[in-house]
Amino acid sequence: MPQDPLSHHLTTMAYNNAWANHRLLAACARLDPTEFVAPRSGFFPSIRATLNHILTVDWFYVDAFEREARGEPPHPRIAEFFEVPEPCDSCQAVQAAQRAVDARLIAYCQTLGDASLSRVVTILRPTGTQQETRTRLLAHVFEHQIHHRGQVHAMLSSTAVPPPQLDEFFCTMDAPLRRQDFAELGFSEAAIWP
Questions:
Q1: Who has the most CB within 10 Å: 10, 12, 51, 69?
Q2: What count of Cα atoms within 13 Å lies in the side-chain half-sphere of residue 10?
Q3: How far is CA 29 from CA 22, 71, 112, in A?
Q4: Sign, CA torsion 170/174/177/182
Q5: Calpha distance 33→175 (Å, rounded)
Q6: Exposed e or buried b for every residue in 99-135, given b needs 16+ CB within 10 A?
Q7: What's the whole-model pTM score?
Q8: What are phi and psi of 129, to 5 degrees?
């Protein structure tokens, strides 16, 4: 068992996040470009808009985590993360940007220890200062991702591209099902579950 089990679990969640994004974006990359931007019912009006929302929110939160870890003050103007609601026009651009921010989140989680999880991350919102423990804010980020990936998953159901299976990450018996994805991502079972 890892020395710090909760920190290790949060790190596995960051890996799971990257894996699920990889699988979902690989499916979306098979869409015709018109389907990628086609209006759909949902919280956001298209698959492209939803994927861009996941990305920009990740940029925002990962920046907050990294600033706190470096002992820097919070970002003075968080609106700049959202001034361009869809910074990536194509699925390929979203894939590259999402993979990069997922790697940053994994790297952040790998620095954590259970004794440091109660440290506070501060965000300066227009409505006031938000302060959350690392544990709570990470849980929020992971849940946000799950929520919006589910929306994209549902949108894919109305296309010719089948939605990918996204619950095959944790169990040892499913290792063969994720082997190719892990190879593409540069992950290994041994690195995630030592």
A1: 51
A2: 22
A3: 10, 38, 34
A4: positive
A5: 32
A6: eebbebbbebbeebebeebeeebebeeeeeeeeeebb
A7: 0.96
A8: -85, 130
The label of the residue with tokens 């919070």 reads 74
Structure tokens, 147: 């929520």
Size of the chain, expressed as the number of residues it contains: 194
- Backbone φ, ψ for residue 105 (5° rounding): -65, -40
Instruction: Please state, in angstroms and rounded to a whole number, the distance separating the CA atoms of residues 10 and 12.
Output: 5
Please tell me the predicted confidence (pLDDT) of residue 2: 57
* Residue 121 main-chain phi, psi, to 5 deg: -100, 130
82 pLDDT above the threshold of 70: yes
Residue 111, SS3 per DSSP: coil
